[in-house]
Amino acid sequence: MVPIRSEVKEANTWDLTPLYPDAKGWEKALEECKKMKGRLLSWKGKLSNPENLAEALEVDREIDLLMERVGQYASLRVCEDEGDGAARDRSLRFDHLQTELAEESSWFLPELMKIPDADWASTLQHPRLKEWLGKLERIRRYRPHILGEGEERILSLVGPVLGGPDEIFSQLTNVDFRFGKVRDEDGTEVELSHGTFASLLQRRSTEVRRTAWVQYYTEFEQHACTLSAALAASVKGDVFRAKARRHSSARAQSLFPDRVPEAVYDKLVSTVRENLAPLQKYHRLRKKVLQLNELRAADLQVPLVAKMQKKTSYEEAARLVTDACRPLGDEYVGVLEKGLGSDRWVDRYENKGKRSGAFSSGSYRNLPYILMNYREDVLSDVYTLAHEAGHSMHSWMSHRAQPYQDSHYPIFLAEVASTFNEELLTHAYLEGPAKKDPLLRAYILNRQIDDIRGTLYRQVMFAEFEHKIHAAEEKGLALTLDFFRIAYRELLESYLGEVLEIEAPLELECLRIPHFYSAFYVYKYAIGLSASIALSNHVLAGDKGAVERVHTFLRSGGSRPPLETLRLAGVDMESSEPVNEALALFSKRVDELEKILG
Known about the structure:
single chain, 598 residues, mainly alpha, three-stranded mixed beta sheet, two-stranded antiparallel ribbon, 25 helices, globular
C-alpha cells in the first residue's frame, strides 16, 4: 500500500531546514518579501541614467533572490503531498504576492526598451554595469516583443489564469484519480498508482501487465473530456502569449529565449523520421523474445532478460551513480555523494498525494533538491536518480561559479547535464560486471536501447504532436477530444504501427503527459541526449581536455547562448551529426542485443 506522508521515515525525505527551519520561518520570510513591494518604483522614469539603472538592477536581484528561495520551499512542500491544504495555502499566497510584484514591476522592461540604440550603447560602457552586461544583452534582444506598460501589466495579471490548465491537470491526475487495485502474479493486491504502474509494466506476466495497463487507461478514458479541455485551454494560452508578444507562432516564442532556430527543431524531427527502421527492428526483436502473438503498449517496458531482474535499494543506487561519475573528478563525486546521502537532497519514495515522476529543484546557492518516486524493482529508477543528480550538480556548479543574474542555465542545457550522467552510468555497467556476463550485458544493452527509444524517438514523436496541435489552433481548428485522438493516432502509426498493435486507449496517452503543459519542452530531451552521448564519448575516450570542457559547460550557467555553450563543449547541435550519432548507437545496440539473445 502507498503510505500517507506522515508514515514516511524522515531519513527518506528531503531536508528543507537549510531553506527554512519550519513553516513559521517561511512565514517570516514571506513577510520580508511583502516589504519589498514598492522598492523598485523608486527608479521609475530614471533608468536612462546608468547609475540609477545599476541600482535598480541590484534591488531587483535582491527581490528575486528572496522570492526564489521562498517560492522553492512553498513549491516543494506542495509536491510532497498535493492534498496538504496548509502547503497549498502557502503556495497560493506566494503566487499572489509574486503576481503583485510582477504587476508592480511591469513598467521596468518597457522603460528599458525605450532607451534609443545610440544611448543604449553608451549606457553599457558605465563601470557599474559591467557585471550586468550579459543580462542586459539578453533583455535587449526582447525589445521587439516587449509591450507598453499597461499591456505588460495586463499580461502579468493574467499569468495565474493561463496557468490554470496545468493546475487542473495536476489536481485531477495526482489527487482525484483512483486507479483501484491489481493482483500481481503471486495473487497479491497492488494499489495502482502512477508509481506502481511503471513497476507493474515490468512484470514478466503478460496478463498482469495488460490488466494494469487497461485499468490505468480506463481512468483516463473516464475523464477524457475534462483532460482534453484542459489541454486545449493550455494550447490556447500558449498561442495567446505568442500573439500578444508579436511572435510568428507559439513554437517561435518558445524557441526564442534559447536562440534556437526553428530549423534545428525541424531537422531533429526529420532526422529521426529517416531512422525509424532500427526502432521497428527492435520492436520485432521484443515481440520474438517475449514470444507474443501481438506486441502491445503494455509490453514495451518489461526487460527482455528475465534472469537479470533484481531489486536495487536506494542506497545501492546512490553508490552506483556516484561511482559512475568518477571520471568527472573527486570534487564532483564528493559533493554528489553527500547530496544523495547524508545531506538529504532527495525525497526518495512515493506517498499518497505526492507529485508523480521526478525533478530537481534548486534556488541560488541553496541545496538542489531532488524529488523521486523510487521503486527498488524498477531499474530505470536508478537511471532517473542519475538523471536528476546531473541536474542538481549542474545547479550546484553553475550557482557557485556565476553571479545570480548569469547562473540560471536554460532547460536546453539542463537535459545535456542530466543525460550525460546516465551515459556514464551505462558505461560503468558495460565496462564492469557486464563485460564478461552476456546476460547482464544484454540487460544493460536493453536498458540503454529503451532509454534512447524513450528519450529520442518518443520525445520527438511528442514534439511533433505539440507542433501539430499548436499549428492547428493557430489555423483556427477546433481542439476537440476527437482531434487529439486522431492526431495522436497518426503519429503512433507512423512511429510504432509497423509492429505494435495500436489499441484505442493508447490514443489517450497524449492526455496524460505533464510536459505538454510546458509547451515545446520535450524536444530538449532529445537534443540533450544526442549532445550528452557525443560529450560522454569524448570523456570516456580520454580525449585531451574533454573533462575540463564538461566542467566549463557545467559552470557556464546561462552566461552564453546554449548552442554556443555546447559548441565550446565540443558539440554542434545545428548539424544533424550528434542526432545521427545517437541513432547509430541505438542501431548498434539493437544488433548486439539480438546477437546475444540469439
